Every structure is written in C-alpha cells, then in structure tokens.
C-alpha cells in the first residue's frame, strides 16, 4: 500500500526492524482482508455514507481531482467511482492509501471528517494512481520509486499549502514548501515500509530534485484552488492544442 496522510510521528509509525517481514502497510488497512459487506449493511453506518457523499462531491467539483481524473483517462486509465474507490475503516494514523495490487484508492472513513480533508486525500492518492498508470513503478521492492511518488503527491496535492502548515503549527520562510514535501514523503514511507528513518531519508534525498520538479499533469505547483483551476484550464487547452497538431 502507498500511504496517504499520516498523523502520528515517524517514531510511532516505525514498527519492527528492517529484518522483519514487511507487510507493505496493509496492517494500516485491516478492511482490505475482510469479506465485503452487503450494500444494506454498509448503508447503516454513518461513516460510510458520509465518506461516499464527500467523495462524490470531491470528484464532481474539486479542480485538483478533476484534472487528475482527466489525465488518467487520457493516459488510458479511466477511473470509475464504484471500482477504484473504497471507503473503509483504517488504523488511526492514516487517512488513505493507494493499493497498487488492485489499482484501488482506500479512503479511511473513520478518519476523514471534513470535505477539505477528503479533497486533499483523494488528490494525494490520485497522484499515486497517475504515477502507477504512466510509469513502471515498483512499489514493493524499489523504495526510490515509492519515494518519488510520495514527493510528487506531497508537492502537488495541497498537503503543504501555507494554511495546512499553519494548522499544523509549522512556520517557515524560504524553502519551507520543499522542507514540508521532504518531511511528509519520509513520514509516508515510514508508515508503510519497515525501513529505518535513515533509509527513507536517503531514498527521498536521492530522487528529490527530479521528482519535486516533475509537475505532471498540473504543469505547476497548485498552492491553492485558484492555482488548481488555472492548471485544469491549461490542461484542457493543452488537449485541444495537441488535437489540432
């Protein structure tokens, strides 16, 4: 599993040693191994209903998500709500994840309570899905591949916007965005891989410049919704331009 947002500190996320068998983060998503519940049973749980409603609103209105959905479709990986998203209960330290084995995005219905949070998690995981679609990503064996996608997700999803960082009581001036992206990428790796902090830091640092500057499919770092809307318009115009070549 490729991690979404992680709320606990890296020290708490690191369980076991590198010699332990790695479960690739599936321990954080216990519902992945359970038999699916019937629609009637799931409809009785408020968390599930709320998650589905927030997801639908994100996919229909959020410019980050809409751009990524169009980019995935253009890349030959059309996303379907019922097939590629699953609202489930998760460990308390994560908000979502991308299950590359099933090409499915997991949304942690017990941890996502606000629409803005849903927007950010869906965007983060759609970036992983986009990377999975366009590149031969070795999620399970190559930590550098995982690090690159985590850098891109933190950079382009809005995880490190000024308002989000202020809400976390983190402040900085020059280079703060890059610092946030690096820190969150490392945290995400530690949440889903049984590696040392030094290994995660080394992987992130080795690919940081190339992956931080890979802005596809946005073409810019969308620091807010206005930036995301402009990026979406540019993406649509790019499609029209390419169609006329």
TrEMBL record:
The encoding gene: Atp23
Protein's name according to its UniProt entry: Mitochondrial inner membrane protease ATP23
Family recorded in the similarity comment: Belongs to the peptidase M76 family.
Top-tier EC class: hydrolase
EC numbers on record: 3.4.24.-
Molecular function terms, GO-annotated: metal ion binding; metalloendopeptidase activity
Start and end residues of each stretch annotated as Disordered: 1-30
Pfam families: Peptidase_M76
BP terms from Gene Ontology: mitochondrial protein processing; mitochondrial proton-transporting ATP synthase complex assembly
UniProt keywords, alphabetically: Hydrolase, Metal-binding, Metalloprotease, Protease
One GO cellular component term: mitochondrion
